[in-house]
Malonyl CoA-acyl carrier protein transacylase (Treponema rectale), 301 residues
Amino acid sequence: MKIAFLFAGQGAQSVGMGKDMYDNIPSVKAIYDQFEEIKSLCFEDKDGVINQTAYAQKAMLLTGYAIASALKEKGIKPEYTCGLSLGEYTALAFGNTWSLTDAIEIITNRGRIMQEALPLGTTTMAAVIGADREVILSCLAEVKSGVAEIANYNCPGQIVITGDNAGIKEATELLAGKCRRVIPLNVSGAFHCSLLKEASKELREVLDRYHPLKSDYTMVYNVSGHEEDRPLNDILQEQICHSVYFEDSIRYLVSQGVDTFVEIGPGKTLSGFVKKTVTTPVKIINVSDYASYTDCLTQLL
C-alpha cells in the first residue's frame, strides 16, 4: 500500500470543523489550544468571517494539520503529500517544512495579501463543465476585452477559469456550445492568475523571512503536477498567480504507484476529483471528522 495525503483547499471550510476531533483526541486538542483565536474561528465563528480569505486559509491549515497529525500518531503516514492551493501549505507544514507557528504566520499573511490584492467586485472565477483543456485554452486565447486564464485543472471535465469581469464574461460567451455549462463561482477574487503578479512579490517578501526545510514526505506541487527541485519560495511565489495542475498531480501520483488517497479536511471535493481522474482501482478515504477518522483507522490499520 502506497499512501498519498491530499489536503483540502479554500472553500471547504465550515463552522465546527475539527470540533469533534478536538473533543475526542488529546493531541488534536493540544494543537488547537496553541491558537485560541483560530480555534474560536473554526468552532464558533462568532463574527461570521470564516468564508473570508484572510480567515479561511489559517482555519483550514490548522484543521488539516491537526487531522493529519492524529493519523500520523496512529502510524498512518503518507509517502506523498499534495494540496489544493492553500492545501499545499498545509501539506508542507505537516511535513515539518516550517514549524506550525511559522506556517500559521505565513498563511495568515498569504490570506491577507490575496484578500487585499484585487478590488472587490472587479474580478471573478467560473467552473467550466464538460470541455477539454485544449478547447478552453483556445477560447481563452480569443478573449480581447480583459483577462481570462485557467486557474485550476481539477479533473477531467472540470476546469476553473479566472480573470477580470469583462474577460470572464467574454470567455463564457465564447465557450457557449463548446461545453455543457459555465458556472459562476461565489469567490472574493480571481485567484491563480496574472492579476496576482504584484501580490506574489509581496508574498515572496513574507516567505523570505523564513527558512524552509525539506519536507518529511515527497511533495507533488500545484505549479507542475509533479515533484520539483527548485527553491521552495520560488515555487510558492509562482503558485499564487499560476494555474493549479491538480488533475495532473493525481495522474502523477498514480504513475508513482500510489493506490490509497486520503483526503484531509472538510468536505469530499478532492475525493471527487480523484474518482473522476483515476481509471484504475484505488482506495479513496476522506477524513474530516472523528467518525471518518475512526473509519480510516479501521481501513488502513
Residues 123-184 form a domain with the Alpha-Beta Plaits fold (CATH 3.30.70.250). The chain has a mean pLDDT of 97. The first strand starts at residue 3 and ends at 7. Residues 53-73 form the longest helix (21 residues).
